Structures are given as structure tokens and as C-alpha cells.
């Protein structure tokens, strides 16, 4: 019997010298290299406009990416052998001529992964030129970075253009939140444990909070961010994907399309918000100067290259509703913002109060049962319950049951980008967005963006280092709830 021959692999990164590449992609690929998850004949080809050869690109990555690799993992010999995998092709991605150089740089008969870490405005050009140069075949894969378009129309145009040259099964629309261990563990928590499924619905769940809070500001990304805002940058993709995993029905299998079918149903069940809903159920904010981590920082309008009188939102809070029988009457509170008090990404499932309590006069209702799923800065799952304090009497206090994943599993836990890049190489689509899923998300988000524009309300100010505008607390208070940090 002949041994199976593994074809060579070429990972081609458009925008190979960009921020995403040297901060995230190359360190993730190094970790995959270090742990033997890349085939011997794997080469990583950076593509960009710099007039560089291979040596200059290797030197650049050596200087920039090294600092973003875990110090304990940075073994000198392994790093050196990883750099030997690198190559660079200088070309303008919008011009056909340079693609002949890229074709010559690729290995004969290789599986080609094209990672488009560029502006989505040139995805169409890249796909077209890859096709006309003969670089696309049945084994090729293309990874599309967010934000995929700035509205439904542009997203559809990009999808249509890429689909002319790649089959849907070859297209990987990446959202790194779906690569986080705890997010993937949420499906096992829900569908692999019988104790949760009967309670994972109304009326047993009172509310769901999904928060992605950042302490950083826009920094040098003012030009990009002011045309994007928090709704496009975070809500339309990251937060809606998290909502889908919380709210989806059990898929009939782990087949990628079975999982994504159920997520699509959730997106189609989201209640559309009209102008009156937007006034009541959404809050936009924009940070002003303040103090973050003990350091005084600029307000949004004082950031470099910021247009004057910008009304771009850096904070969004939304009360969403999934209109189906499982979630009837359960509010989903979505919140994201820059320059917040703490860096925190978490999902909080708040269960309903007992219908009758024998513990009269105690404040059990102020400490509800909560399932707290923390995605960053550390990944953890905790169940908040009530327990009796030691001593006489029956005084209660909240305690936590911890699902300690790090102690339970001793093997290394890959970072999100590493896990997703390996999924691309292996051809696993489960944790990537399908075209109809992306467009369904835009169909919900677009009317919100258009409605805000029509209302023309200035974003509410909030000082950097706070938890956002006071109006966001009012948003949840109407449902007799508080944001987690205040509870």
C-alpha cells in the first residue's frame, strides 16, 4: 500500500505587512508551526505594495511579530525554522500584472489558502486577478476578513463578486470570536449536558447580556473607524454571532451547514426595530476625555485625524428580541464600547427568580442565578448560586461554581486565530459565516443604521474609563435588570 502523499501548502496573505498580519496571523501560524500542525511543505507568502524581497520581509516579521508571541513559546530554533517558511511578493493587488509573480512563487500542485487581510473594497479585484492568473482550483480556499461591506448592498456585491470565482464551500468568512475556546465550549455546555436544555428558554431565563468592552480608543485607526463605528465594527458581526450561539436550536448534527442553518434561523427571528423602537431600545455613545487604567486619555474628537463634529458611535447598547417560542419575552441586551472601564467580553445568562421564596425578608432576588461565560481577558465559565452563610440562622450569600477548563485539561489551548487558521487548512467550515448568514445579519443591522441617520441624534457622551452613557443603565432598568458590573 502506498503511503498517503500530503500536498504542499501555500498560505498567501494579502496585506502581509499589515497590522493584522504581524500582530495576529503570523504569531498564530508560528504556534501552529511550533506544535507540528503545518505540513513540512508549507510556505507563507506575504503580499503587499512594499518594494521588498524575501530578506526584507523576514527581517520585518522578525522585528514586529516576535513581540506578539508567548515568551515561553518563543524557542529560538523553532522561530528560525518558522522564518524559513516565509516569502514575499511585491504587487499592487488591484493590478493584474503582479499576479504572475505570485503564481511563480507558489509551489506546483499546492493547496492554496488566500487570506485577504486587506480592505474589503479590493476583495473583488483580488478574486478576479487570482482567477485570470489560474491560481484558483478546486482545492483553493479564500479567507475574508471583516467588516465584509458597510451595509447590505455592499456585502451582497462582495459576496457576488467572490462567488464568481470561488464556490461557497471554498469561502471562509472569519470572525475570530468564533475561534475562542469558551465560545466553542458553549455549544457543548448547551447540547452536551441534559441539565441545561430544559431550562434554556423562557420563562426560566429572565434575560441575556452580551458585552464586548474595550479599554483602547481608536488610536491611529481614525480614518477607518469614523466611517465604520461600533455598530458595523462589533455588533453586526461579533455580538450577533455570540447571540446566535446562545439562542440557536440544537442542530441535527455538527455538519457545518446544519449548525449554520440554526444560526440563520436566529438571525431571521430577530425583531426588526423601527424609529420608535430605536429611541426606546438603543443607545449610542461617544467617549470624551477621561482616565483609563490610571492614565488620562483623549476624547474621540481629540484623536489624530478625526473629522470635526463627527457623530460616529463608539458605544452601542441594544435591547434585542428573538421572536420565537423558545425566547418569547426574553430581552437580549447587547453592549459594546471603546474606552470602557475594563476590557471584558462576556455572556451572562440570568435565570428567573423562584416563583415562591420561603426566605422572607432576604435579598435573594438581588443576586439571581447567573451563568457567566467570560471570553476575555481570561476564559472561564461560572454559575452563580445562593448558599447559606456559615453559622446560625439561614442567611444567604451568592457563591460561584467554577468550570475550571485550564485545570481540567492540561493540554495547550490554542488562540482563536490559530484554531481558525487550522480549520481553514483542514477544510472545516463550522466556525465561519455562510453567505446567507452574513446577509441576514446585515438585514437586521441596516435599518438600525439608517434609522439613526434619519433621527440625526448626536451620540451621548460618556467619559473614557466609565461603563458608557447613563442611558444604557436605563435601557436594562426598564426590564428590572442591571448590567453585570452593577449587580
Describe this structure in words.
The protein has 487 residues and is an alpha/beta fold. Helices cover 33% and strands 21% of the residues. The chain has helices spanning 19-34, 54-64, 76-83, 99-105, 123-132, 152-163, 181-191, 222-225, 229-247, 256-269, 275-281, 405-408, 416-426, 435-455, 470-477, and strands at residues 9-14, 42-48, 86-90, 111-116, 141-144, 171-173, 205-213, 282-288, 290-292, 295-297, 315-321, 331-337, 344-351, 370-376, 380-388, 396-403, 460-463. The strands form 3 sheets. Strands 16-15-14-13-7-12-11-8-17 form a 9-stranded mixed sheet, with helices on both faces. Strands 3-2-1-4-5-6 form a 6-stranded parallel sheet. A hairpin with a 7-residue loop joins strand 15 (380-388) and strand 16 (396-403). Helix 9 crosses helix 10 (256-269) and helix 10 (256-269) runs parallel beside helix 14. The protein is globular, with a radius of gyration of 24 Å.
In short:
The protein has 487 residues and is an alpha/beta fold. It contains 15 helices and 17 strands.
Rg of Cα set = 24 Å
The CATH top-level class label of the largest domain: Alpha Beta
pLDDT < 50 stretches? none
Find the CATH topology of the largest domain: Dihydrodipicolinate Reductase, domain 2
Write out the strand line-up for the largest beta sheet, numbering strands in chain order: 16-15-14-13-7-12-11-8-17
Strand segment count = 17
The amount of helix comes to 25-40%
Percent of residues in beta strands?
Answer: 15-25%
The pLDDT mean sits at 92
Oligomer: single chain
What do we call the CATH homologous superfamily of the largest domain? Dihydrodipicolinate Reductase, domain 2
Pairing-aware structural class of the strands and helices?
alpha/beta
Cα shape = globular
> Into how many domains do the coordinates divide?
2
The number of helices is 15
The N- to C-terminal Cα distance equals 64 Å
Reported for the largest beta sheet, the result is: 9 strands, mixed
CATH architecture of the largest domain: 2-Layer Sandwich
Function: Catalyzes the oxidation of glucose 6-phosphate to 6-phosphogluconolactone.
Pfam family, one: G6PD_N
InterPro entries: G6P_DH, G6P_DH_AS, G6P_DH_C, G6P_DH_NAD-bd, NAD(P)-bd_dom_sf
Family: Belongs to the glucose-6-phosphate dehydrogenase family.
